[in-house]
Write a structure and sequence with these properties.
three-stranded antiparallel β-sheet, mainly alpha, about 400 residues, globular, two-stranded antiparallel sheet
Length: about 400
């Protein structure tokens, strides 16, 4: 028989649990249970991301600049090692140590706000300078929040009364508030979406979620009118809802220019694209932040609808495999962990691609596995390693 846990159907326990490197009782080696489809899809998208970063950063004429793509490849190698190492660690250890993981991520968010400890970039106090590298703790904090939620909710075993729901809300709200103080609107919005999805899967009544959503709208309105956000962040939001009207400020005009260039690049790609390294807008640097937040414009312009559809298909495969692993998870913690990671990837992908075509506000969210940035890529690789760990131990 199958059992239903948090609304997710799971298969019955198997008789041969998997331990460290081999199944107990001399069974199949642990690595034989790895999800190679997920590994292949992640490798494909990250490699494609490195190619597109090189395309938009190499310059129009020789000698071509390879510094950016070399850094991407370096982070890909580090990410692969971290993903493999995380996969080999039993994910249930995270359940035992979630308070320390969550607490560490919150501590980093506090430290980065201290002038002289954290670094400011583009008006956001959100980076640590570690020699030649920069670490963005808000990326790790999203994963820390997911681990914390899964750890705490799994202890409740589906029995969610009001005090326990408040505990889960507080657990999610603390890192969100600290990220908002940087301010980093994009990461905050992703975290809110992940929190709502986890609450729903954990068993919180939809009516209560509706009340929480209304409260989130009120809080968002207060944030927009309180002066917490920088002028350029407010301009990004107001431009999104007033795209057909004239600009009202210099920041508004700059945001409109960014959006117009992005839409022009994608629209000019047509069905098959202008060709790799031949993008009029992206290869000539008309699109701002084209190696990071707007990397999808390079895909759309140079490889057209076919390239964009191929990328979306590969991302869809990643999401599908994580969803499948969540269904196969042997416990509540593994299921919630995979669900949170899946929603994080879905929301970030939708927001990033949506903002390049004008259906979502520009919030500075990287495209998973594609955008240039070490913190984002390493976080995603560690996340996939956790999913692989759950999948490899689905018989235990």
């Amino acid at each position: 028989m199958t059992s239903t846990r948090y609304g997710v159907r799971t298969p019955p326990p198997r008789s041969a649990p998997v331990g460290g490197g081999r199944s107990r009782g001399g069974g199949v080696p642990l690595w034989r249970h790895i999800d190679w489809v997920l590994v292949g899809a992640v490798a494909l998208v990250t490699s494609f991301g490195a190619l597109m970063v090189y395309s938009v950063t190499r310059g129009p004429v020789p000698p071509y600049d390879t510094s950016f793509v070399k850094r991407v490849i370096m982070f890909m190698v580090i990410g692969a090692v971290l993903m493999a190492a995380t996969a080999m660690v039993d994910y249930r250890r995270l359940r035992d140590y979630w308070p320390f993981i969550y607490g560490g991520s919150v501590l980093m968010l506090v430290l980065v706000l201290i002038p002289g400890v954290g670094e400011s970039r583009s008006g956001t106090q959100g980076w640590f300078q570690l020699g030649p590298f920069q670490l963005q703790p808000s990326e790790m904090a999203k994963l820390g929040m997911i681990i914390g939620f899964a750890g705490l909710a799994s202890q409740f075993r589906g029995d969610l009364d009001n005090p326990r729901i408040l505990m889960l809300l507080g657990l999610c709200g603390l890192p969100m508030g600290l990220v908002m103080l940087q301010p980093d609107l994009g990461t905050t919005l992703v975290s809110v979406a992940v929190a709502f999805a986890l609450l729903l899967v954990a068993g919180v009544r939809p009516r209560l979620l509706g009340v929480l959503a209304l409260g989130a709208v009120v809080v968002t309105t207060l944030v927009l009118t309180s002066g917490v956000l920088k002028e350029y962040q407010v301009a990004r939001l107001t431009t999104y809802v007033r795209q057909d009207q004239e600009a009202t400020s210099e920041k508004d005009e700059e945001t409109r220019y960014n959006l117009e260039q992005a839409k022009l690049a994608i629209g000019s790609g047509g069905f098959t694209g202008q060709g790799l390294f031949r993008g009029t807008q992206t290869n000539n640097a008309f699109v701002p932040e084209q190696r990071t937040d707007f990397i999808f414009t390079a895909v759309g312009e140079q490889l057209g609808f076919l390239g964009a559809a191929g990328l979306l298909t590969a991302l869809g495969v990643i999401v599908w495999r994580i969803w499948r692993t969540a269904q196969l998870a042997r416990d509540d913690f593994g299921m919630l962990l995979c669900t949170g990671i899946m929603v994080m990837i879905v929301i970030q992908s939708f927001e990033n691609i949506g903002m390049t075509v004008g259906i979502m506000p520009i919030t500075g969210i990287p495209l998973p596995f594609m955008s240039y940035g070490g913190s984002a890529l390493l976080t995603m690789c560690i996340s996939i390693g956790m999913v692989l760990s759950v999948h490899m131990r689905r018989f235990s």
